[in-house]
Structures are given as C-alpha cells and as structure tokens.
Design a protein that fits this description.
heterodimer; A: alpha+beta; Thiol Ester Dehydrase, Chain A; two-stranded antiparallel sheet; elongated; B: alpha+beta; 5-stranded antiparallel β-sheet; 32% strand
Chain lengths: 149, 113
C-alpha cells in the first residue's frame, strides 16, 4: 500500500517551485505506487462513498477518481509545490477499473504541456498517465493549476 | 441526477489526510483571508470525487472504461455550506453553493452517441 504522502512531496518540505522554473515540454518522471483495499476505503470515506467500493461485474472496484489523490505527485516529484496552489481545471479519462479487493500497482508519468498568464495569475498545464504494471492504461489526466509565486 | 453534500472543515481535513497535501489554503483561516477568500477552501478534487461517484452510478460499468470527467473550478467551495452536485441527461456537470456556481463541466462517456 502506498499512501500519497509516500510519493508526493508536500508543501513546505522543500523550496516551492517558482513559475519561471516550470519547463514546457519537460517529462515528468515515471514512478509507481500501490492502491490497496485500505486506501480505497479511506478515499471512499473521504468522498462520502461506500468504503467497500462499487460493484462491477460482480467484483468490488474503487471509484475511479481515487487516482486524484496521486495526481499532483506526478508534477510535484519534479517540481516541489509552493504554498497556496489552486486548481483551475481538471480532466480525467478512465480506461480500466482499480480493484477494491486486492492491491493494484499503478505506474504514473506525465509531461508539462503549457504555462501562461491570464488576468494576473500564472498557470501551468500538465498531463499525467496511469497504467498498470503491464502497461495497460488505467487513466489519463490533464490538470491546470495556478501558483502564487 | 442531483445530490446535496454538506461541506465541513472535518471533511476537508479528512480529504487532506488521504490526499497527503499540506497546502494551508485548505486549513488556515488567516492565510485563506489573506488570499481573498472568506474561509479555507475545500479541495476541488474532493467535490470532483463526489461527481465521479455519481457518474459511476449514472453510467454503470461503462464509466470505468469510457468515462471522462472535465471540471473547471470557477468559484470557491467553503466549509459549512451545502453544495448541490448535478449531472443532467446530457452529461453537463454543475456544482453550486446556493446561487453561487462553483464548478462547471461535463461527465460523459467517450464515443457516446
């Protein structure tokens, strides 16, 4: 089981990345984590859902948005976060279920797509992809966040 | 489908625990006010999680292999407010706290007719 804190740098642990330091086109290095039934249950409780997950074809599976708690790790492992980041938009495409009954190893990676300024705020857009350990896609995400520095 | 959720600081803290963040905008009243908000902000991804679970109910098995959710966070989400999460028949997603729109977007199936 991998808690997000084990793979995601937290605010104030390291000097926060300045907007100028984000590099468009930068690859966000691959890492892996394991989603266990305990993580599924804790995440489900946090979104007012059934801790046992949902039923799909007779099997217990996680609400697919569980990957959200690992999403920012894809960016922050290369670019440690500053305090006060705010999410502007977010897109997830789901390709395959995550078990709520057994451990699932997920491999994550990504890429910085764009950065821009709008109405005095500075934004970074990046994508993340999540596969199982066979390389089969589980989900893709695209996030835009604004950072105060 | 439409569902109400009452946001509390306890729920924000619980989400922050599994989310593993230490972003004080979700926890520190003074800091949130410095940034121009009336209170700490709920995690947008927590509310996206509410919507994703609702979409799984709406679309069933297809959601896990063809689901696509796109949200824009257009207004703050505060503790001690009831929010209404709605996904209409066309997959349009809308989240509001009273008459204040907080999130707009879609929750649809890819390749849907």
């Amino acid at each position: 089981m991998t808690r997000p804190t084990e793979v995601k740098p937290r605010e104030d642990e390291q000097p926060g990345t300045k907007w100028e330091e984000f590099e468009v086109g930068a690859e966000l290095p691959q890492f892996s984590f394991t989603i266990s039934p305990d993580i599924v249950a804790e995440y489900s409780r946090a979104i007012d859902a059934d801790p046992q997950g949902m039923v799909l074809d007779g099997k217990r599976v996680a609400v697919p948005s569980i990957l959200s708690v690992y999403l920012m790790a894809v960016l922050y492992r290369k670019y440690p976060p500053a305090q006060g980041g705010i999410m502007a938009s977010n897109k997830f495409r789901y390709y395959g279920p995550i078990s709520a009954d057994s451990d699932t190893t997920v491999v994550a990676s990504g890429k910085v797509l764009e950065k821009y300024e709008k109405r005095g705020r500075r934004y970074v857009r990046y994508m993340a992809r999540f596969t199982n350990d066979n390389g089969d896609p589980i989900a893709e995400a695209e996030n835009i966040s604004t950072f105060p520095n | 489908m439409k569902r109400d959720y009452f946001i509390t600081q306890e729920k924000i803290d619980r989400y922050g625990e599994i989310n593993g963040d230490n972003d004080i905008i979700h926890y520190d009243v003074d800091y949130a006010r410095e940034r121009g908000f009336k209170a700490p902000l709920a995690h947008g991804l927590m509310v996206q999680g509410y919507a994703s679970a609702m979409a799984a109910e709406k679309y069933g098995a297809d959601w896990f292999t063809r689901g696509e959710i796109h949200v824009k966070f257009v207004g703050p989400l505060y503790p001690d407010e009831t929010i209404t999460v709605e996904i209409d028949d066309d997959g349009k997603l809308h989240v509001a706290a009273g008459d204040r729109t907080c999130i707009v977007g879609t929750a649809k199936l890819r390749d849907a007719a």
